[in-house]
Structure prediction request, 75 residues.
Amino acid sequence: FAHTQCMFLDIYAFMEYVEVAQPHITYPSFLPHTMCKMWMGCFTTDLKISHDLFYAGVPVWFVHNESQIPSDMNV
Prediction:
């Protein structure tokens, strides 16, 4: 049963991505799409991926080196 449930959730997540997020990545607008709070989101080190997912409304955390953070920024 657990394997079936895992497969169902994988398929559901893929369908959500294709139906909701992908159109916003393919045809971007000037303003970010409203974030879907029921999605877990992702971590990435790729700036383009983080930008695309942010504008598609996917929660995203951009991971980068500490040296890239301006000294006057509060973290």
